[in-house]
Amino acid sequence: MVKLKSNDDKEFEVEEAAVIQSEMIKNMIEDGCATSVIPLPNIDSKTLIKVIEYLNKHINMGKAAETGEEDDLKEFDEQFVNMGWEELFDVIMAANYLNIHELMELCCQSAADRLKNKSVRAVREMLKITNDLTEEEEQEIINDAPWAFEGPEIDDTVN
Amino acid sequence: MDIEIEQITSQENPQKLQNNNKAITKGNPHTVAGTTSESPDSGNNNSSNSDVTFHKDQNDGDDGMDDCDDVSDTMRTPILRKRLWKIKKTMLEVRVFKPQRINLGPMEGSSDATCGDRISKLPEPILHHILSFLHAKHAARMSTLSKVWDSAWNSLPYLDFGEIFWWSKDLNVVMDQTLASRKKHKISMQRFSLWLSYYACLSYDDRWIKILIACNIKELNLRVETHYYRGNFLYGSLPVAIFAAKSLNVLSLHGFNIELPADDGTINLSSLRELHLSFVFLDEQFIKAMCTSCCNLEHLSLQYFNGLTSFQVGGTLPKLKMINLVNLEPPDSLLQLVDIVAINLKNLSISNKFYGNINVVRITACKALKNLYLNCVDITDNWLEELFYSLKNLEKFDLICCKALKIMKITSERLKQLRVVDCHNLIAVELDTPNLIKFHCFNEKFKVFLG
User: Which CATH architecture has domain A2-115?
Assistant: First the structure.
């Protein structure tokens, strides 16, 4: 078992087989730097719980392929990313910090799926993005790459 | 189940939350942790199978979670703790930092209110990672969101143009512009994907490939739609500049006629780790050049190829771990001989769509081979016996439609899984395989399932 400590001082015990999906922690263990508690100053306990939930579920990824549990895993992944933007960004930052490749892919894919086909207006509203471009600058960008702004398939809804 | 709980939390009676709020000293979350612990929800949801163990902080005070401390050996207890903590934490955030959000309604809305353009504050590589999953057109469109996004688009090292036909007339302009700006800013390109429709009469330009090479491109996925015309496949012509991509790790080509550079016929793809070719025309010269140049190749996939009568890999690719060959159906298939010497090869799959011409398969030098899949390959009883005599590490063996096989004799210490399907002339199977776990034999004449 490996002990992880979140930035709000909560400790979690995780099986080594699960936690080594994090390249960062795997390296620490290999270098013998993981003898006591591993502090994770960038991750709060709420996010860490999410990450551990993912690691535990994906512990036997290789086996899942053999035993036909892939669908189960896929369903889990779909449910897993069903979270608000804020939480998603927390998990992305954690996955990036811990270097968990599959989790990073899953979450970034989910973020991209939510942006796909959306109009700029919709994305701006959805993510509360402040536009710091002047009208001229904006027009210049559009004029430079008109191909990006053509086509009918733009979704203007904020969902 | 987690979601249900979260819903309960976020839809919680505003009255109750406000009442609790009164007991909270603002800006001191620790006090809150104590107060929130008496949540009536505690202890009701303990039926998951996750293994999170939660060690309560000693300063945390006495809260509802103490109930589970003494039974930490059971599977359920840790989950109970996890759940409770989740509820507690959510409520804590709601009350202390944004009490007004109680009125924002359930689910995502409430947590997103704190978002305040957090996405734009993500480190650029992460923003790039997110944008990498979008079609280049969609990613480019995001550049009008704000300055951060404009810069993220202009430096985006992943460009997926997908299938191009609707803006074909501008293709050159789009490519020149998009790639030129990356070259100018010295962006190290990670991935470039483009798929040209045959009907748009477009072709790849050497110029684009040269720019990408100058940007140290790592992964290239190029595709043209092949076209069947009067009994022949029509292939796209491959920009020869590609063979000079020294930093390239992954190359996928679909629909091309693969010809070596006319000048010296050599290729320089020394960093290549994966090569995926499908619906291509190629010859033995290319395979030879590949074996000489691609010394770091790990994965080779060759599907629905034309023009090769023999596939030969000498001992020059020590890192090769996986080969996947899928032959075209006759009369387009010409392949007759497969001869592979690759000491670290673990997985080999040779597959004919229909019973084909492959009648010589030499793989006994691939000593590390673990998984072998043969479909419609002309192998004999003796061949099989010899194979297991030479390849001691074989663990998984699939034989599909190998019609020449009559008596199957296998002696192997390591073999774990054996599958024999539709080998219609098979009359006897003799196995000396002490570690076989799964044996699946499905033929017209007899069926055996073991393990």
Answer: 2-Layer Sandwich (3.30)
Arithmetic mean of pLDDT over chain B = 74
**Which domains does chain B carry?**
2-115 (no CATH), 122-390 (3.80.10.10)
CA distances from B52 to A5, A51, B33, B365 (A): 13, 10, 20, 47
Among B144, B147, B160, B370, pick the best mutation site for testing chain A contact (most A Cβ within 10 A): B144
Q: Percent helix, strand, coil in chain A (nearest 5)? A: 60, 10, 35
Per-residue model confidence (pLDDT) at position B449: 56
- What number is the ipTM of this complex? 0.93
The amino acid that residue B103 corresponds to is N
Task: Specify the length of chain A in residues.
Answer: 159
Phi, psi torsion values for B252, nearest 5 degrees:
-120, 125
Q: What percent of chain B has pLDDT over 90?
A: 32
Which residues, in sequence order, are bridge partners of residue B442? B421, B447
Is B302 in a helix, a strand, or coil?
Answer: strand
The one-letter amino acid code at A84 reads: G
Strands B428-432 and B219-224, sheet pairing: unpaired
- DSSP secondary structure code for residue B276 in this structure: E
Give the amino acid at A56: N
Per-residue pLDDT averaged across B15-24, rounded?
38
pLDDT on residue B324: 95
Place of tokens 């947590």: B111
Between CA B234 and CA B230 the distance in angstroms is 10
Cα(B99)–Cα(B102) distance, integer angstroms: 6
The answer to whether residues B328 and B301 touch, using CB atoms and an 8 Å cutoff, is: no
- The pLDDT tens digits for B241-252 are 899 899 999 999
For the whole model, what pTM was predicted? 0.76
Domains of chain A, by residue range, sit at 2-115, 120-149
The model's confidence at residue B328, banded by pLDDT at 50, 70 and 90, is confident
Contacts of residue B341, Cβ cutoff 8 Å, sequence gap at least 6: B313, B314, B315, B365, B366
CA distance B125 to chain A (A): 10
Q: Which of B102-111, B114-123, B207-216, B305-314 has the lowest mean pLDDT?
A: B102-111
Nearest CA distance, A31 vs chain B (angstrom): 25
CA distances from B296 to B217, B269, B323, B450 (A): 16, 9, 14, 40
Burial of A122 (0-12, 13-18, 19+ CB in 10 A): middle
Question: CA-CA-CA-CA torsion for B369, B375, B376, B382, nearest 10 degrees?
Answer: 30
Chain B residue numbers touching A104 (CB-CB < 8 A)? 129
Q: CB distance B122–A151 less than 8 Å?
A: no
What Cα–Cα distance (Å) separates residue A63 from each residue in A58, B140, B260, B373?
10, 40, 42, 20
Beta bridge partners of B274: B250, B299
Q: Among the ranges A84-88, B7-11, B93-97, which has the highest mean pLDDT value?
A: A84-88
A115:B86 CB<8 A: no
> Which of B3, B142, B146 lies nearest to residue A130, judging by beta carbons?
B146
Cβ neighbours, 10 Å, residue A157: 9
